[in-house]
Amino acid sequence: MRTVGVEEELLLVDPETGDPRAMSAAVLARAALDAGEEEVFEKELHEQMLEFATHPQEEMERLHAEIVRCRKEAARHAGELGATVAALATSPLPVSPAVGVNSRYQWMADQYGVVVQEQLVMGCHVHVAVDSDEEGVAVADRVRPWLPVLAALSANSPFWQGKDTGYSSYRSRVWQRWPSAGPTELFGSAERYHRRVADMVSTGTILDEKMIYFDIRLSERYPTVEFRVADVCLHSDTAVLLACLARGLVESAAREWREGVEPAGHSVSLLRLAAWRAARSGLTGELLHPATMRRMPAETVVRALVDHVEEALVEAGDLERVRAALAELLRRGNGARVQRELLERTGSLRDVVTGCVRHTQG
């Protein structure tokens, strides 16, 4: 059974007003004071962000429990300092992001200017174990057309600086401003992948391999492929749904590779259009079908994803969990829909944030 791990970035906010709070350093210091507590929280680019990473898990029930526990611990540590956390991929309220104080972040601020100031965006990264870099690159080549579907499921960032953007995932549009972000062409082998990464670092435009922001990449720290397209999910069960589907995609792609099935040859231009469509529509409109790259209802495309990975889901024992979680997601809506419904009911973006704080903690 392939293991799966999840990284989530959370927004630190004032529990009363919903305003983002630049206090990640204080929250991290407070978490470190807990005797014997394992360090699961990490600093991120901006002081209004707090990140955690789960352990690799085979059982999705355990993964879900760990995500819930980490969210609650993050809220507890922040609460002791007068703040709380929200699983929001962008801040609905206006904010002036504060870049973290260390040499890496300062280099990025100097190099990229306003792009860094705008990157107060929170994502969900899913790591799935692979046997080798060769298998990992084969997987990355074969899952490319399905990544926008994962992005649509997770979409949770309709608001930006106090306004409705018209997008379900505006975070993904902001993220594309990094020079190394987005879909990739086919690599064909681990050697070509590593050569491309080395060439990119050698330009001096990015600092190091950690700044390879491909939609899916080989992790530089773990024996995994890392899916990087998703917004942080408002609800923890959606994050687990993404983890199940990501593992299913990896297993299905690895089998295709071993059986000699060639990856779809869609161009980067088409993949960028599919990603834009997913960011705009989320689950409320149409998506580009990964096989045809033509518009179809979002629910039809999501069902096609489940059909594509069904065999892998059955063998992992995840099929019924995926069906139940997907039915709930389509009924309730993704984070973007929930946020817009909160605004329609309350008329207040502050109430949107405080409502999402409650959703974050279940």
Outline the structure in words.
With 362 residues, the protein is of the alpha+beta class. It has one domain (4-360): Creatine Kinase, Chain A, domain 2 (2-Layer Sandwich), CATH 3.30.590.20. 48% of the residues lie in helices and 13% in strands. The protein contains 15 helices and eleven strands. Strands 1, 2, 3, 4, 5, 8 and 9 form a seven-stranded antiparallel beta sheet that branches. A two-stranded antiparallel sheet has the order 6-7. A two-stranded antiparallel ribbon has the order 10-11. A hairpin with a 6-residue loop joins strand 10 and strand 11 (295-297). The chain starts with a strand and ends with a helix. The mean pLDDT is 96. GO terms for molecular function: ATP binding; glutamate-cysteine ligase activity. Belongs to the glutamate--cysteine ligase type 2 family. YbdK subfamily. ATP-dependent carboxylate-amine ligase which exhibits weak glutamate--cysteine ligase activity.
Taking all Cα atoms into account, the compactness measure Rg is: 19 Å
What coarse outline follows from CA principal-axis ratios? globular
CATH class group: Alpha Beta
What's the number of domains? Answer: 1
Poorly predicted residue ranges: none
- Going by helix content, strand content and strand pairing, the class is alpha+beta
Distinct helical segment count = 15
- The N- and C-terminal alpha carbons lie at a distance of 28 Å
* CATH architectural group: 2-Layer Sandwich
Largest sheet: 7 strands, antiparallel
CATH topology-level fold name: Creatine Kinase, Chain A, domain 2
Strand content: 5-15%
Report mean pLDDT, rounded to a whole number.
96
- β-strand number: 11
Helix content: 40-55%
Note the run of SSEs as H and E: EHEEHEHHEHHEEHHEEHHEEHHHHH
